[in-house]
Amino acid sequence: MSDVSKTWKIIIMAISAPPLLLMIIAVILGDEITGQSFKRFANALITGYTFSAGLLFINMFFYADSRHRPLAPLFGMMLATIFGSLITLWLLSQGDLLLEENGSVRAQVLSNIVRILVSLVALIMAVAVAVGGTFVAITSRPKRKLFEEE
Amino acid sequence: MQAALWFWLPAIAVVVGTGTALSSKSDLIKRVSKIIAAIGFVMVLFSPVTVPESPSSAAGHLLGSIVGPCALLATGIYLLAFSGNVEVGKLSSTDRKVGSACTFLGLVWLEGMHWWTWTPMMNGEINPYWLVFWPTFLLLSTGLSSGAAFSLRYLGDSREQESNFMLVISSLTFTLTALGMILDGPNISAEIFRDSFWLAVSDIFGLGLGVGLSIIVFAFVIWVYESSLPPTKSLDAPSQQELVQASSIVAKHIGGEQE
């Protein structure tokens, strides 16, 4: 295994280790993964796919700009987004994925979108803390000499 | 209809306005987009007043509750980072003190929402989106800070001190999450927090998988299109005459005989 791939594996493990440890603590405290968690997972999966596919569809316009505006990839990505939306609506209309507080498919879809936006705000703040903290740590240290002649 | 007008339309304006402001090349469009995004943001903040009956307005309420501590935290981190040893645009030592105070106040404010009585409450109940935001933020912060610590250690050169600082941040957020699972707060019991924790884990895994799938589909669509394109026409090898001409031009420009 090369040094680079070893380093990346260590970093991915470092990112996953604290959340996994917290999950172990929660299990030790007697929690079980409930059906509600699986419903939330499924809702997040289908909403995340459709939301992200929609954004990538918009991004496809920029790709098309650099390729003499071909229609095929635009059409392909549009189909992928529509497919995601239809699957989302179909799965929600089966009723098994509706969370307790939402009585209709429309309410569940809107609730999923709001939750994804709140999760995105949490992600942005967490990235600000991690990246900002790293910058603070780096710039707080006295300037290092690169060469003895400096 | 009221919710569409007072919450969803402004929310779309925030997303579209921000996206356009970041991607447009025209200064006028950028300025207009920023104004549209700002108006949308203010309208979303006021949605608990304009459409109190809509469940979505709880998101506007949460945004109004966390905008203060998040702004303090972001400002504090910015002031601390740029008052250190930076090559250009270094801020003063007073800014460093202000930055420290902002970061500290922002953290205390956010912690007070869990461990004290500042929890965002709506109609006498905990705002449901606070129970989405808080565990997600803690979980991602502890993971990303730990990732940053190991990146500094393994990718950086002599960055152990900085790596240790990031490990402290990761440990702090880890401890706060673990404490929340064990100890009751005045409004949020340990059991409610643990339930929210599992739901946040489900959200993060679901979102990650969903986004990953869409990226794979995106790559697949581009790959199918690119592979259907005819191969580009390659040029013939240069002739002897072209090579002689090229070497004479190169010879004119090297050697320094004319200088």
Would you give an account of this structure?
The complex is a heterodimer of chains A (150) and B (259). With 150 residues, chain A is an all-alpha fold. Chain A has 2 domains: 1-32; 35-140, no CATH class. Chain A has 4 helices and no strands. Chain A has helices at residues 3-28, 35-65, 72-93, 105-140. In chain A, helix 2 (35-65) packs antiparallel against helix 3 (72-93) and helix 2 (35-65) packs across helix 4. Chain A is extended. The two termini of chain A are 38 Å apart. Chain B is extended and about 90 Å long. Chain B contains 9 helices and 2 strands. Chain B has 259 residues and is mainly alpha-helical. In chain B, helix 6 (130-155) packs antiparallel against helix 7 and helix 7 (160-182) packs across helix 8. Chain B has 3 domains: 1-54; 60-123; 129-227, no CATH class. The interface between A and B is large, with 81 and 86 residues.
* Largest sheet, spatial ordering of strands of chain B: 1-2
Helicity range of the residues of chain A?
over 70%
What is the general shape of chain A? Answer: extended
As a percent range, the share of strand residues of chain B is: under 5%
Structural class of chain B: mainly alpha
Number of domains of chain A: 2
Count of helical stretches of chain A: 4
* Number of distinct beta strands of chain A: 0
How many β-strand stretches of chain B? 2
Mean of the pLDDT scores of chain A?
83
The value of Rg of chain A in angstroms is 22 Å
DSSP helical segment count of chain B: 9
How many structural domains in the coordinates of chain B?
3
Largest sheet of chain B: 2 strands, antiparallel
Q: Which structural class should the secondary elements of chain A be placed in?
A: mainly alpha
Q: Report the oligomer.
A: heterodimer
Report the order of strands and helices of chain A.
HHHH
List low-confidence stretches of chain B.
none
